Automatic annotation (TrEMBL):
A GO term for molecular function: DNA binding
Protein name stated in the entry: Winged helix-turn-helix domain-containing protein
Protein's GO biological process: phosphorelay signal transduction system; regulation of DNA-templated transcription
Species this protein is from: Methylobacterium soli
Residue ranges of every copy of the OmpR/PhoB-type domain listed in the record: 1-83
SUPFAM superfamilies found in the cross-reference section: C-terminal effector domain of the bipartite response regulators (SSF46894)
Record Pfam families: Trans_reg_C (PF00486)
DNA-binding region, residue intervals: 1-83
Keywords assigned: DNA-binding, Phosphoprotein, Transcription, Transcription regulation, Two-component regulatory system
Domain of life: Bacteria
Transmembrane intervals: none
Length: 93
């Protein structure tokens, strides 16, 4: 993907999470929603793994954008992508 003109390498799971956040910009997504999107109910890991993925994704996005935080934590509920802040563009190759 490309963020602020910089190419960002994401793992498959990170990309899927950013994709889901982008599709639901401005809405709060629960950890359960992420697990269902990533694993489809099959061999799901612990909920805590979502926090780990979000942490890694935030770092990569921040590094590419000069420290900008795109993903908001909604305490006790989940995560939300700030409306209008990230534009995903898949990179070929």
């Amino acid at each position: 993907v490309e963020v602020s003109g910089s190419r960002v390498h994401l793992t498959g799971k990170e990309y899927q999470m950013l994709e889901l956040l982008s599709l639901r910009k401005g809405t709060t997504l629960t950890k359960e929603m992420f697990l269902n999107h990533l694993y489809g109910g099959m061999d799901e890991p612990e909920l805590k793994i979502i926090d780990v993925f979000i942490c890694k994704l935030r770092k990569k996005l921040a590094n590419a954008s000069g420290g900008q935080n795109y993903i908001e934590t909604v305490w006790g509920r989940g995560y939300s992508l700030h409306d209008g802040m990230v534009e995903m563009r898949a990179m070929a190759g």
